[in-house]
Amino acid sequence: MGTYTENRPGAINRNYAKLPGSYLFSEIGRRVAAYSEENPGAKIIRLGIGDVTRPLCKAVTDAMHAAVDEMGNEMTFKGYGPELGYPFLREAIAKGDYAIRGADIGIDEIFVSDGAKCDCANISDLFSADAVMAVCDPVYPVYVDSNAMAGRAGTFDPSTGRWSDLVYMPCTEETGFLPVIPDPGEGRKIPDVIWLCFPNNPTGSAITREELTKWVNFANENGSVIMYDSAYEAYISEDLPHSIFEIDGARECAIEFRSFSKTAGFTGTRCAYTVVPRTLKREGASLNEMWARRQSTKFNGTPYITQRGAAAVYSPEGRTQIRENIEYYMSNAAIIRQGLIDSGFTVFGGVNAPYIWLKTPDGMKSWDFFDHLMREFQIIGTPGSGFGPCGEGYFRLTAFGSRENTLEAMDRIKGAF
Ligand code: PLP
User: Fold this and answer.
1) 104 CA distance to ligand 1 centroid (A)?
2) H-type helices in 185-280, by residue range?
3) Which atom belonging to ligand 1 lies closest to the Cα atom of 266?
4) CA-to-CA distance for 334 and 401, rounded, in angstroms?
């Protein structure tokens, strides 16, 4: 006699079984652990994973302390908050991130959450099981894996590193690591959803107004929806759009993801938001209303204390203090860029993003370069191939380490390549 589950084939979401093996950072962790065990004295410098290291700024912690006191007082205690975010934070965002850049975003278009990762993964709930998704290659893996789990990616071919049902937009050195607009020619699939991320993780590339306008026009002409992940907009140092809503026509075709993680050190505190304009409609349905319905059904809101901390980012002190941290990281980025250039590397990114994307020397494979850098210099980075086949031959370093470690890492490789 079989077990209950064996008697009910089809009950399990088999799409999970289609996901390729170990997650990139688990594999890195495994290799680093094995190396550390063999070399217990090695001083390893981690410039791989994209987590911040600077603490929360004082304006944020003061606001959070005050919020803790409110929660401990029966006169000011708060239970469940509004699922879509407290008005004080949504207003601060509308004013401080959008009105200031000439983008007209109303507070009912802003949905506060506990992370851009979950929002990026959950937003596809608004699309049918056979909606066509276009993704960049290389890519932040969440867009791909979450759609694969929902059955939209088809099957994974390990020999090409690609899913059968996704539309891929290669980002190569020739295009300045910008994706090429999918050709909607005969027999080709027009994407229902286009995933863009600028400034980009992993390549560190950024997009101009002119280029972004082409995407908005394409989406409006073809009925596609752009998912615009601008989690790193705070790192832009040149005259570039911070939001897709700075572009005419974006309110009719785009959703934007933002996060306090890299802007204000909230990776462990968790706060983000997604903007879904009321004017974004498909097949007569309002995506704003659908997302509001989805979030109020499946999400119970970001903690009050966290939202108070996030709102403090928009105060004059908060703005100054988070800027100091961003400048700290971007000085690290400049040190890495220059260190690599001086060592003869071809380097991209690191100007409008905390990511430095380097070409491996002598056409080395990304994972071979990972092992080489770990074994010879005890420096950990991220193999470009882990982000997609077009990342092969590239390698990502991040500016999120301490100044001391960043300087030492560049010192270690000086003259070695
Ligand atoms: N989007 C991109 C492109 C990221 O690189 C990351 C984090 O590394 C996120 C979203 C996730 O942000 P959060 O910490 O808000 O979940």
Assistant:
1) 24
2) 209-222, 260-264
3) 14
4) 13
Q: Which residues of 391-404 are buried (b: 16+ CB within 10 A; e: fewer)?
A: bbbbbbbbbbbeee
Q: Can you tell me the distance from the alpha carbon of 281 to that of 176, in angstroms, rounded to the nearest whole number?
A: 32
Q: State the maximum Cα–Cα separation within the chain, in Å, rounded to a whole number.
A: 69
Kindly report the average pLDDT of the chain as a whole number. Answer: 95
Given 3.40.640.10, 3.90.650.10, 3.10.180.10, 3.40.50.300, which CATH number is that of 61-315?
3.40.640.10
The fold for domain 14-55+317-416 equals Aspartate Aminotransferase, domain 1 (3.90.1150)
- The whole-number pLDDT of residue 7 equals 64
CB of 295 within 6 A of ligand 1: the answer is no
pLDDT at residue 416, rounded to an integer: 82
Chain region(s) in the chain for CATH 3.40.640.10: 61-315
Alpha-carbon span 341 to 417, nearest angstrom = 11
Ligand 1 midpoint to CA 234 (Å): 13
225 - beta bridge partners? Answer: 193
382 Cβ below 6 A of ligand 1: no
Tokens at residue 7, please? 């008697």
Looking up tokens 């420096």, which residue turns up? 379
Nearest to 324 by CA among 409, 264, 413, 239: 264
Ligand 1 centroid to Cα of residue 261, in Å, is: 7
In percent, how much of the chain has pLDDT > 70? 98
Give the tokens for residue 245. 């809503």
| Between 10 and 305, the higher pLDDT residue | 305
Q: In which element (H, E) is residue 286 found?
A: strand 285-286
